[in-house]
Amino acid sequence: MSVIDANSVFISLQQKGPLAVLENVNLFEQFSPLTRKWVKQLAQNRNSMTKYRALRSQAFEFLEVSRFQDIHTLLHEPKLRAERSKRAYERLGNMFGIEGSVREIEYRVHEYARTADAVVNELRGKIFKPYASHIATTNEIEVTNDPIQLLLIVFNDRYHKKARFEARRKLQLMNLAASIHQRENETEIEDKFSNFLKFLNDFVWSPKQKIGEHDIVYLHSQHAAEDFRCMNVKVISHNDVSSVKPEKGTKLTLLKRRRFIAGNREYPIYVSIRKKPPEAKVLKLLRKNEKNPAVAVDDELGLMAVLDSVADVKVFQKHLTQSASRANSFMVLEDISDTLTGNSQYSSTATGSSTKTPMLKFFARLGGMRVEFIIHTNRSWLNYMYQQDVAHDEYEVRRIFDSGVAELLFPEDIFYLNHEAIRHDMLQLFRKQIEKLT
């Protein structure tokens, strides 16, 4: 389900829905012709009506008012607003399990606000980079982190429609960030990430290398003219790279490789280890149309590895299991998907994902952790980076637009954006960048 469908869990942000931000706010005209028309529209969908009542109840409870007219008093009484803010922080602390004083809770809630800003800035910096000025957040909203102040802006007609929408959006993103932080505390993700790194350094990587040491090599690859898939690739040492001349249809890609020992042989391996930052998790919740991170974010810990051949991949998979045994833990592999051999296509329910992406993907359960592993050969990784309709940069564009997240966060009538045209332009831009000479 798209986040802009009628039954989306984010209906309160939909600018084409019954809860859209209007040009003006009037807290005293509850029975005007415009209001009656809006109520009639809202009543056409029982689900929308139920969600509206729940949202109204939550807003009133948060602001400690019983009717819309009471909000007008809050807008003009700074002392009263300060009292409500203090109580709101205390209640938010209890709601999300934040321990400490009011000041400590306030600091944490402001962290959620910074995550909300980071979500927008993440998209401004890449997917919407040529359109950064269009989606820049209004200054007054970006510097406001107090939830009471943000909610009051939604009802304040002195603020422009765009600012009021951004205040509502920031509150929604803050709520998702808070849910994610609560989930991280419950699952002790920080400790698990540290333990995972320790497991890799103590039992997986070669003891002949220092922690953090890498061998620098380059992949020199030739790509097909029609779709830029990798036709062949060879590994070039750091010392020999200066002799390689740039040619059309070729790429020179740097890899920083570690090593692991299996049997009597040392194998090179490029590894990217990640713990998703909060803004990435928020975006994933939006794409999945889900508010519960326990359901939507199943890949908090992840490792992507690149090896020279399919045979090396099989050796590494066996080495992982044996390393877990040396760490006094079983390792169980779950949800295995292997398309490296070319006998089957990669199957994914993720919006924007390509079935042309060959990889070995599985979740490994060990030491109280569940870690996502994505394993590539040099060739399949280069396809993952560069092939048309497969490249990760293109995938990022497709999943933001095709899931409806772009329209949800930056509705056309407020930000004056043609999302279909931007999607096409950004895919073309990334393709041009990918295929340019090294």
Helices, strands, pairings?
Blueprint: H1 33-42, H2 46-63, H3 68-75, H4 78-96, H5 102-125, H6 132-135, H7 139-142, H8 147-154, H9 161-187, H10 189-204, E1 215-223, E2 230-237, E3 250-262, E4 265-275, H11 278-287, H12 293-296, E5 301-307, H13 310-326, E6 332-338, E7 360-366, E8 369-377, H14 378-386, H15 392-402, H16 405-409, H17 412-415, H18 419-435
Parallel strand pairs: 5-8
Antiparallel strand pairs: 1-2, 1-3, 3-4, 4-5, 6-7, 7-8
Helix pairs in contact: 4-5, 5-9, 5-11, 8-9, 9-11, 15-18
Protein described:
- By secondary structure, this protein is an alpha+beta fold.
- It is globular and about 80 Å long.
- The longest helix is centred in the middle third of the chain and has 27 residues, at 161-187.
- Strands 2-1-3-4-5-8-7-6 form an 8-stranded mixed β-sheet.
- Helices cover 49% and strands 16% of the residues.
- The model has no long low-confidence stretch (mean pLDDT 90).
- β1 (215-223) and β2 (230-237) form a beta hairpin.
- The chain folds into 2 domains: 11-186, no CATH class; 189-213 and 259-390, 2-Layer Sandwich (Beta Polymerase, domain 2), CATH 3.30.460.
- It has helices at 33-42, 46-63, 68-75, 78-96, 102-125, 132-135, 139-142, 147-154, 161-187, 189-204, 278-287, 293-296, 310-326, 378-386, 392-402, 405-409, 412-415, 419-435, and strands at residues 215-223, 230-237, 250-262, 265-275, 301-307, 332-338, 360-366, 369-377.
- The two termini are 40 Å apart.
- It has 18 helices and 8 strands.
